[in-house]
Amino acid sequence: MRKLFCAAGALVAAGLILGGSLALAAEKPVTLRIGHPMAPGNNVTVGYEKFKELVEKKSGGKMKIQIFGNCQIGSDRVTTEAAQAGTLDMSSSSTPNLASFSPAYMAIDLPYVTDPKNQQKLYKALDEGELGKALRKVANDIGLETIMFSEYGYRNFTSAKKPLKDVKDLQNMKIRTTDSPVEVAVATELGMNPAPVAWGETYTALQQGTVDGEGNTFSLLNDAKHSEVLKHAMDSQHNYSMHILLMNKKKWDSLTPEQQKIIREAASEATAWQRAESVRLEEKAWQAFRDKGIDITILTPEQRAELKRKTQPVRDKFSKEIPQEIQVLIEETQN
User: Fold this and answer.
1) By the 8 A CB rule, do 246 and 80 touch?
2) Cα-based distances in Å from 183 to 159, 189, 195, 202, 300
3) 170-198 pLDDT, tens per residue?
């Protein structure tokens, strides 16, 4: 009887030790690493800094976020491949650079399929509607989970040498693009010579004359100090892009429901804050361009209509490769 009692006591003690060990394990902070290519102070960068702050606050320090920005651990493509493989927890990639992972992402980047006046409707569809759900499924299909649809902005054409007063001035420019087939096609239809160059090498390419110009948000160009070598710009607003924060799907599934809830809440709040901050930073960049003497051409409605007409073949071509459902969902935000 005494042996049985001792054995029972030993089991209880073992259970308490095991339970204590599990409790300690549960208390151990979870550290998640984010890799992204954006410059310090950029609208995408500050959004992830806000996300980090919120996750750590909401979890009481039990969840930590480490951010490796400014191409420290590679370009969009490199970090997204690492997130797919599970060697990195999260990657942020621009939608043009996600085209090589799934053609569905090209839907967002098609020229002139979105308009700044409909931005709030687009946000609502991404955050609460079927568009966001459809894009999350796209991510799941390539082994990733969507965490944030970060604002990137509308791209404008810029030049290091040639004045950009009219649509015809874009012809024969050697323009830096990403690897996105849409970006390459847009440049081709406008009579430019596309030159896919990694983001981290673009400043030097402009400086050395390897490329004549690029298309990007003024905010990013200013933060990355490209405004030091650029001389001319036009508000072409030829396409809208996002930076999408993606997590390795297995890593996401390994988190507890409470941890997932903290990440979702932090992402939602950080996204709303980041979009508002993006407006302020873009206005600041416009002023910085003017202060540096960069000549900015404001296109007339007729000139913008000409750009839209010239890029129609791009929309026609790629609409065949992109899921119809996603195209329709984007179109619905523009009505």
Assistant:
1) yes
2) 16, 10, 10, 15, 23
3) 999 999 998 889 999 999 999 999 999 98
The owner of tokens 């687009």 is: 122
In sequence order, the β-bridge partners of residue 157 are 215
Close Cβ partners of 243 (under 8 Å, ≥ 6 residues apart): 36, 38, 44, 92, 93, 94, 95, 150, 151, 152
* pLDDT, tens digit (0-9, with 9 covering 90-100), for 72-109: 999 999 999 999 999 999 999 999 899 999 999 999 99
| Token pair of 151 as six digits | 């604002």
pTM given for the model: 0.86
CA angle 137, 141, 144 (to 5 degrees): 85
3-state secondary structure of 226: helix
What lies within 8 Å, CB to CB, of 176 at 6+ separation is 195, 196, 197, 202, 205, 206, 211, 213, 214, 215
The Cα–Cα gap between 320 and 316 comes to 7
